Amino acid sequence: MTHYDLIVIGTGSGNTIVDERFASWRVAIVERGLYGGTCLNRGCIPSKMLVLPADAAQRAARAGHLDVHSSFDGVDWPALRDRVFGRTDHVAGQGHDYRHGQDGVDALDGTARFVGPRTLRVAPTDGGEEVEISADHVVIATGSRPVLPDVPGLAEAEPYTSDDVMRIDALPRRLGIVGGGYVGCELAHVFASFGVEVVQVESADSLLDNQDEDVARVFTDLASQRWDVRLEARLTKVVRDEGPDGEIHLHLEGSDPVTVDALLVAAGRRPNSDLLDLDGTGIEVDDQGLVVVDEHQRTTAEGVWALGDASSRQPLKHVANQDARVVQHNLLHPHDLMTSDHRFVPAAVFSSPQVGTVGLTEEQAREQGLDLAVVRHQYASTAYGWALNDDDAGFLCKLLADRSTGLLVGAHLVGPQAASLVQPLIQAMSFGQPVKGLARGQYWIHPAPTEVVENALIALEGEL
Amino acid sequence: MTHYDLIVIGTGSGNTIVDERFASWRVAIVERGLYGGTCLNRGCIPSKMLVLPADAAQRAARAGHLDVHSSFDGVDWPALRDRVFGRTDHVAGQGHDYRHGQDGVDALDGTARFVGPRTLRVAPTDGGEEVEISADHVVIATGSRPVLPDVPGLAEAEPYTSDDVMRIDALPRRLGIVGGGYVGCELAHVFASFGVEVVQVESADSLLDNQDEDVARVFTDLASQRWDVRLEARLTKVVRDEGPDGEIHLHLEGSDPVTVDALLVAAGRRPNSDLLDLDGTGIEVDDQGLVVVDEHQRTTAEGVWALGDASSRQPLKHVANQDARVVQHNLLHPHDLMTSDHRFVPAAVFSSPQVGTVGLTEEQAREQGLDLAVVRHQYASTAYGWALNDDDAGFLCKLLADRSTGLLVGAHLVGPQAASLVQPLIQAMSFGQPVKGLARGQYWIHPAPTEVVENALIALEGEL
Question: Pyridine nucleotide-disulphide oxidoreductase dimerisation domain: which residues (chains A, B) (predicted)?
């Protein structure tokens, strides 16, 4: 058994830990799939590389309200898919080759499970002989994976998940999507923009049900104009006809049945901790399967750390990257530990419309009993909104402040550039900048999209 | 002669001063044109309402690099023009009617000139009898207008300026644009996107010559791929053929001659102070015709104030609005004067590519002898840049910091969403937030366009 200074399991954000400062460490890195993890290979990056062409397709198909005649004449799906995954696979391969050629690092392609304290058995992906390794420090950076809900016939229908739907050979004529969260809503936009007939099934009464309700309402209204959205609809049974081109029939409680040619399940993800044989290791997991960590990303077992989707309630790449920096620092500076900052974690939905959000929803803030000031400011009331000429869309910036502190507690945008426009609000929240003076203490370019934030802040200041 | 508490000359930003807090004041407002000034009627707003359709046209015409087949099939120019000016004219009309119906306010449609201290003679626009009015306070909010350079034949050719080119009846086949500043570059994008053959003539060696040179270079390279850009070319003579459809011939020093069907001159603007008969009033103007004001927007004459393009070296709407708020406050609080903040004034060029900028250019910073840290970060190196698949474009975020203070002194972006992406940097500069910790002290959504700013800040911190 080889003993290391450090073992990192997983090469998503975990792979960023081992840099030149670890040159004197003996390191093993274990990866059971492609280097780069979910974000690079199955998540944020390929999906956004599909969303931009989808945005272009949607805009070309609908510019009449701007008095422009244009048309969308189809997507070259194989070329697009190959461009996207040609790029990400290349980067993943570079990551693999770099680690495999690196002095002082043993890169193991295989699946690790714990067999003792900081001791792992790795089953090689190529079927070779298992090896046991141990280390002073182990970092669990094993991420998460999509789950299939327990619905009769669903697994047998072999539906796609976000893991593979982006790599399909050809666009289906009709695509069913189970799930109204951000993954389902981004991919619904992608496929609908490319001309696929999309039916999206969600058990809640809106899409993006975990967003602020104003954002969810605007989003759901606009999505429903573009594809078939079935709300308060529960999938009860799936039947797939025989044969490679067999139709898939979705039986729904609360809605009429649906027949599609392909099915995507985007009904949530779960941490991969169950694959690690954590029982008896002293590494606690919670009831969702998340590895329990403290503010320094330490698990409940000595010398074992965790980060990202393996341990975070916010399974987002920018959180995983932050966690990885904290683990990295703390490995290098055991007597000067850094603390994770999960106070103001933003998120975006790169669909159409786009959503950008940070902090508490109104519902969450009211549950906390805050003395709340709330404003909703329409894009349509700004000069940029006039230019959009899309007044009925309802694009808005909603801000929440705590009157007792004068600070922002939540910011939610739905509309063009929402993921960018939320940044000054993230900045204000993160650095404790009070609402009072925030709008007037800086210039906002006229007539840029940022004016919706400026005007919302001015209105909010008037409510404090 | 009627005596007022306050006379405001000009209804651009000047019109925002008189709100309900002036209910007890006797006020006169003088306007020689449309209510709302340049921004609403001839500037920012209509131009941006044309830029968005132009963006849509350009994107539809060029989406092949995204593997999307789409086409631009023409603009309905009369419908677009009527939609834009239908909206702005309506708002201008509302402004006019509101003031004309308001108790305590005399709205005079005419041209004002000084005939004594705080005493004006107003020549009514309808040719009626001139009236004299005086006031305790006079606000000069008279804005600026385009200038024609002194070139033989130019005035006789009756070229368009930004005042009227957006209202033309039909798109010309070929449009000459004299001037490579932001007005010329925005309107070149508009007309080129709509299929007009544009030739842009600039005497400097780049377009946007007053921008940071990296921004100017990237912009000029990309513009030159879309329309005919003539650099280091000086207009020496203009000849217009006889008749309503007479061709216009531009003779150029440093470039071949050009023949066009219509001509736009966008070669700068001048303050309207020369129309006010300021001689002998004690109201000083500088050698550019700008009314000289102190930090409270007071002119050199007792009780006379000025704001916006009439007095600012930065003729931008967001500056004029700020100036107006300062004048408003100071009129209401004569013993608690507010100070104008012109430290960090951003600006954008809503062309394609877009430019967003604040603070010093590298050249300006070097002239000041600053101990400068400079980074240039490419959009192409971010995940969003991968999605754009436009690596050759050269889109970038350039940041400048003063090593002696650790503060940003300039930020310049050229590329998608530049006018929005610059906002967190404006915020940091305005509130004195140090570069150190700025990127890591807040989350940046992955993979949003904002990551180019995050990564540039991280690189900059490494240079301090």
Answer: 345-456
Specify the CATH number for the domain of residue A190: 3.50.50.60
Q: Residue B417: is it exposed, middle or buried by C-beta count within 10 angstroms (0-12/13-18/19+)?
A: buried
Residues of B within 8 A of A47 (CB-CB) are: none
Residue B51 included in any domain: no
Contact A56 B70 (CB under 8 A): yes
Query: Does residue A384 belong to any structural domain of this protein?
Result: yes
Q: Does A318 touch chain B (CB under 8 A)?
A: yes
Cβ-Cβ contacts under 8 Å, B51 against chain A: 387
Residues B422 and B405 in one domain: yes
Q: Which residue of B has its CA nearest to A45?
A: B383
Q: Are residues A274 and A137 in the same domain?
A: yes
Written as six digits, the tokens of B292 are 């000289």
DSSP letter string, B354-392: -EEEEE--HHHHHHTT--EEEEEEEGGGSHHHHHHT-GG
Give me the tens of pLDDT residue by residue for chain A, a chain 464 residues long: 899 999 999 999 999 999 999 999 999 999 999 999 999 999 999 999 999 999 999 999 999 999 999 999 999 999 999 999 999 999 999 999 999 999 999 999 999 999 999 999 999 999 999 999 999 999 999 999 999 999 999 999 999 999 999 999 999 999 999 999 999 999 999 999 999 999 999 999 999 999 999 999 999 999 999 999 999 999 999 999 998 889 999 999 999 999 999 999 999 999 999 999 999 899 999 999 999 999 999 999 999 999 999 999 999 999 999 999 999 999 999 999 999 999 999 999 999 999 999 999 999 999 999 999 999 999 999 999 999 999 899 999 999 999 999 999 999 999 999 999 999 999 999 999 999 999 999 999 999 999 999 999 999 999 99
Phi/psi region, residue B354 (left: phi>0; alpha: psi -120 to 50; beta: rest), is beta
Chain A CB contacts of B45 under 8 Å are 383, 386-387, 447
Instruction: Give yes or no for A433 touching B (CB within 8 A).
Output: yes
A95, A188: one domain: no
What chain B residue is nearest to A318 in terms of C-alpha separation? Answer: B446
Residue in A66, A348, A433 nearest the CB of B445? A348
For the sheet with A174-178, list strands across it: A228-230, A197-201, A174-178, A262-265
For residues A317 and A453, state if they share a domain: no
Please indicate whether, in this complex, the C-beta atoms of B60 and A45 are within 8 angstroms of each other.
no
From A212, A235, A267, the end of a domain falls on: A267
> What is the C-alpha to C-alpha distance for residues B3 and B135, in angstroms, rounded to an integer?
5
A12 and A140, same domain (yes or no): yes
Q: Domain residues for A419?
A: 353-463
Contact assignment for B445 to A347 by CB distance below 8 Å: yes
ipTM summary value: 0.97
Q: Are residues A82 and A231 in the same domain?
A: no
Tally of CA atoms within 13 A in the half-sphere of B3 that contains its CB: 3
In this complex, is the C-beta atom of A423 within 8 Å of any C-beta atom belonging to chain B? yes
Same domain, B395 and B455: yes
Nearest CB neighbour to A447, from listed B48, B319, B444? B48
Please report whether residue B95 resides in a domain: yes
Structure tokens at A133: 């390794």
A464 touches chain B (CB under 8 A): no
Q: How many domains does the structure of chain A reveal?
A: 3
Do residues A277 and A251 share a domain?
no
Count other Cβ atoms within 10 Å, centred on residue B262. 21
Last residue of some domain: B300, B332, B364? B332
Count Cβ neighbours within 10 Å for each residue of A203-221 and write b for 16 or more, e otherwise: beebbbeebbbbbbbbbbb
CA torsion A248-A253-A255-A257 (nearest 10°) is 20
Q: Is residue A119 part of a domain?
A: yes
The CATH number linked to A372 is 3.30.390.30
Under an 8 A CB cutoff, do A67 and B49 touch?
A: no
The DSSP call for residue A314 is S
